[in-house]
Write a structure and sequence with these properties.
The complex is a heterodimer of chains A (458) and B (85).
Chain A: H1 3-10, E1 17-19, E2 24-26, H2 27-32, H3 37-40, E3 47-51, H4 55-65, E4 71-74, H5 81-90, E5 95-98, E6 113-115, H6 116-119, E7 135-139, E8 149-153, H7 154-157, E9 172-175, H8 182-193, E10 197-199, H9 207-216, E11 221-224, H10 226-233, E12 245-248, H11 255-264, E13 269-276, E14 280-285, E15 292-293, E16 298-300, E17 303-308, E18 311-316, E19 322-324, E20 338-347, E21 350-356, E22 361-363, E23 366-368, H12 370-377, E24 383-393, E25 397-406, H13 415-426, E26 438-441
Parallel strand pairs in A: 1-10, 3-4, 3-5, 4-7, 5-6, 9-10, 9-11, 11-12, 12-13, 25-26
Antiparallel strand pairs in A: 1-2, 7-8, 8-19, 13-14, 15-21, 16-17, 17-18, 18-20, 20-21, 22-23, 24-25
Helix pairs in contact in A: 10-11
Chain B: H1 3-17, H2 38-52, H3 69-84
Helix pairs in contact in B: 1-2, 1-3
Classes of the chains: A alpha/beta (458), B mainly alpha (85).
Amino acid sequence: MILRERLFRSGGLEGLFLSDHHEHRHLAGIIGGPRDTSVSEPLAGKRVLLAVGGQMAAARAMLALDGLVARLALVPPGLAPEHVARIATDSDAEIAVCDAEGLPDDALPGLPRIDVETASRASFEATVGTGRETEWALATSGTTGAPKLVAHTLEGLAGGINTAATPEPGTVWSTFYDIRRYGGLQVFLRAMLAPASLVLSDRHETVRDFLVRAGDAGVTHILGTPSHWRLALMSNALSRLSPRYVRLSGEIADQTVLDLLRAAFPDARMAHAYASTEGGVGFTVEDGCEGFPASLIGTRAGIEIAVRDDALYVRSSRTGRRYLGAAPEPLMAEDGFVDTGDLVERRGDRFHFLGRRSGVINVGGAKVQPEEVEAVVNLHASVSMSRVRARPNPILGAVVEAEVVLRAGTDAADPAALKKAIIAHCRPRLSGHKVPASVRFVDDLPLTSGGKLVRRMP
Amino acid sequence: MSLRSTIHAEIAAVAAEQEKRMPPITDDLVMLETEFDSLCFALLVARMEDLTGADPFSEMEADDLPVTVGDLVALYDRAAAKLAA
């Protein structure tokens, strides 16, 4: 399957559009616009790094390059320069398709580059029928800082999408996500494979502006994380939306957010999906209740779900194929199962999510490795040791909390001031979502028999 | 300090720490139309829980969803009354 070929053949592009916060383009124009064979030459069969600022440029490039290049590595927006460099290295990129916002002039010297506007005119005709499968490389949301790259096939990425179904007339997709992230890419593919219109978000836009824009564009199908939705629920612009389908993914969807969304959109179909960059789309729950029915464990069409040692394992053609990079760890076990690292607990006939085995904290979709924060907290002169954990938070799902054992002899006459000082110490040393929201002083911290901090939630 | 002034002060403190520019904080201010983002909001709610013991967001009805600073004050007011009862 090649995206543009499929869109070309599917027809029915009349009236369909792709829009972002400053332009509105006809899908037919994007697919059938003027082509330039000379542009295809330096790109054909190459490993390409796609590093652009906005999502419209990314979408057009993805449509132009799928089926033409050997590998397409997507650089999500807002990454630190060293992480962009890491993605370029791990994807073994031979050429960058970029713009000034996505890749500054002085970045990645030595890597040839083509402007994204030019690359989006790459000829397609040469590849019709003889096109190659492009390998897609997606960055994980990053735990220890550096994102890992996961290789996917387009078939695998689209595996959870019913591509045979005729789209409901008038469907307009949108997502709070960026389409260069796994969740956002799912929406991009749903729209392109339907085909249907798509409204792209912008990370510099306020929630209100996005909701107004999505409402004006007639969005009917929309995906966000529970955190995106919690924020949207507090905007008086939410009433501008009248979706027929509301989807949540990327974080644990709790009953509160599900109930609030149900109340806000009583007539919409509502689904919370379990998906990850590595594990692909596992399953979707549509009964409006948190967790998932135990009946999903086992083998269904195209996917097997198992619980081993209280963690979810997934085996299917939708999972990533492997990690990319110099010394990649295996993505899946020898039996083909991907360990998702997500802990679950059975209560009656449902399973509930408990969080990450590694203790990784999910702050509104941004992952925080506790050890990284502890290392910074421990630098404070009054701190003997610390343990960083998730503190449940109704807005972002979780925020970071540090439990701190003070050094003997520390003057803690004013505990509130000392807590503030420890947090202030972290602020310049960690990105915003990693800075502890709160500090608790404890007398000691439990260690395992191996001398490691006990991290599992009680 | 009254609950209202506590909330106003905490909004200002969180915004300052997160280097967000805020207009004057009044009850009419619609928070999501300012630079006060989801992380700011999350931090505010965590602090208010530490200060008041109340987390009205964890169990709320659709009608309770605060849009303005005044809505937020009212939400914590009701939560405080509930705690005291």
